[in-house]
Amino acid sequence: MARQSFAEKMNDSKLMISGVKQQSDRLTRRGLDSKFVEKYERIFGDVQKLDKEQERLKANLKTKTETLQQKAKEMKALYSEAKKIVKIEMKNSAWREFGIQDKR
Asked: 3, 23, 55, 59: least CB-packed within 10 angstroms?
């Protein structure tokens, strides 16, 4: 049996709430009363809100990741430039002071 996607579960719940409301006279005696429907609708609404918030956070994360990657690229270029200059200007024995492990 295939697993349902989140969207399918949401749609199924939406249809279930609607159906239970329409057939409340038959389903109330089995426990699907107005209290149950109110709780179901409240939880459904909470899930919708949380899903929207999660999607917003995903978008923010993607933006932050792009910013981080760009800054890391800039940092790498600056490190490379500094390393090159240190290796030209300083003696090999002093390179470790700058964190350079190279032999030449």
From this structure: 3
